[in-house]
Design brief:
By secondary structure, the chain is mainly α. The protein has one domain. The longest helix is centred in the first third of the chain and has 38 residues. The chain is rod-shaped and about 85 Å long. It holds the Pfam family OmpH.
Length: 170
């Protein structure tokens, strides 16, 4: 009797799973077709290059200080050596601190990215969620994500509908 109940329960669950609707979107494609995202990426790239240039300049100064110290070390007294080493160490700490401030996990670039890109991603998520509710989809996959999709039928691609829901034309 338990076997029969198990088989019936399995068939009911399998039947329900087969009746589910699935679709996919390509968030990479969607983002490429949103001008605000492209502008945000360009702005982030410019900021990143500016920060990188500033850090490279600071690093070059550090390298010069260290090279000068090495070449002059034989002529310096122990007290002067310590002072120069302290200056170099302090400059290195400043460099690493600035690097963390710009590119760290909670750094300026991260915060700027959060401010520019996250609202766009939230809009996409809300549009996908609306389409899922309207179309009765159980699952909507992201083709651009890390998940492997060996085959996708274009008739189940909702990417253009997401763009339309956001007010963009493909």
């Amino acid at each position: 009797m338990k076997k029969i109940l198990f088989i019936v329960a399995f068939l009911v669950v399998a039947g329900a799973a087969m009746a589910q609707k699935y679709a996919f979107v390509d968030t990479e494609y969607i983002l490429e077709n949103i001008p605000a995202y492209t502008a945000a990426q360009d702005q982030l790239d410019q900021i990143s290059q500016q920060y990188q240039k500033e850090l490279e300049t600071m690093h070059a100064e550090l390298e010069k200080m260290y090279t000068d110290y090495q070449s002059e070390a034989v002529l310096l007294s122990d007290d002067m050596k310590r002072k120069r080493e302290d200056v170099i160490i302090s400059k290195e700490k400043d460099y690493k601190s600035l690097q963390r401030q710009y590119f760290g996990p909670e750094g300026d670039l991260y915060k700027k990215r959060e401010g520019l890109v996250k609202p766009i991603q939230d809009d996409i998520f809300n549009a996908v969620q609306d389409l899922a509710n309207e179309g009765g989809y159980a699952v909507i996959f992201d083709k651009a994500g890390s998940m492997s999709m060996l085959y996708t039928n274009p008739k189940f691609d909702l990417s253009d509908q997401v763009l339309q829901k956001l007010g963009y034309k493909n």
